[in-house]
Amino acid sequence: xxxxxxxxxxxxxxxxxxxxxxxxxxxxxxxxxxxxxxxxxxxxxxxxxxxxxxxxxxxxxxxxxxxxxxxxxxxxxxxxxxxxxxxxxxxxxxxxxxxxxxxxxxxxxxxxxxxxxxxxxxxxxxxxxxxxxxxxxxxxxxxxxxxxxxxxxxxxxxxxxxxxxxxxxxxxxxxxxxxxxxxxxxxxxxxxxxxxxxxxxxxxxxxxxxxxxxxxxxxxxxxxxxxxxxxxxxxxxxxxxxxxxxxxxxxxxxxxxxxxxxxxxxxxxxxxxxxxxxxxxxxxxxxxxxxxxxxxxxxxxxxxxxxxxxxxxxxxxxxxxxxxxxxxxxxxxxxxxxxxxxxxxxxxxxxxxxxxxxxxxxxxxxxxxxxxxxxxxxxxxxxxxxxxxxxxxxxxxxxxxxxxxxxxxxxxxx
Length: 414
Known about the structure:
Strand content: under 5%
CATH architecture of the largest domain: Up-down Bundle
Distance between the termini: 30 Å
Largest sheet: none
Number of helices: 19
């Protein structure tokens, strides 16, 4: 339902602002862990679990909430999501201990899980077919901008005022955006999601499951380091929030550059592009362990990390869609689940590493997970090449039954 160019652009800006607000909250909490630990008399490894709960509520509850909201239009789903997010932020503002903070983060994660996918979907509906990829790119830019600007600003502001005020600000803006969306955006009909069988069927294609596994493992490695960035870069920051904010800003700005770098996938091919990115990430994390006490060394290493991490997302989604273009929306949703499953698991593993081995081992473990994801990626390439040669669909046994029912019928190799 494309609209006029002016109104469509204005609507997409509002949608991008919605994505920016919920993403800024997610990224900022990692940088606020030292402040949160002090406020709730806990250690960073324990407080890191609120990042886990946020990501789990986003990744796992979102499909079920989408099914419950199947009779609502996209703009209403986004508006409700923003209000739920605001309630979570208000709860976080008033949180008095670890458990009240945990519950509030779960609520915020549920709200964000409703906002981001629906906003991206509605942005594509508002654009003509030839411009839909640009709409998706705008939402991705909002996500990157949240990491590059939103999170560092909140972390920096926490050095001059209570971190709670920044959280309250995000909640207030989300309420305002909800009202603007309701008043100005067009209705796009109802938002229906696939049934349970349709949701699960694609993962039985080995090419899809290995791609999702690769994304999951790489994201565990990358976000284990990001979640506890205040720990791994303690030497470079000397415990100062403004230095940590600057390093997070460098990471986010490099991520913005990485999203543009991802446009080179078509020129070099997915296989070469992904292997190059993962090689750089693996060695970069190990080098960061050696140069992390130097602010300049940490800045260079974290810039490479940010650029390659964000660029990695683009070819992974391309791989999934190339397997079954007719299931593009579903496959991208599965990829989002893999990403957030990875970020949530990262906080758990990172906390365990700190408690049992110490913070010095965080980057080594992060690199090990990236290496495991690289192996899964190479296996995916081998399976895909064989499938292309034999003109067969590599599936697990259960998928054959689902395919006979027409669930993944039409899946082809690329």
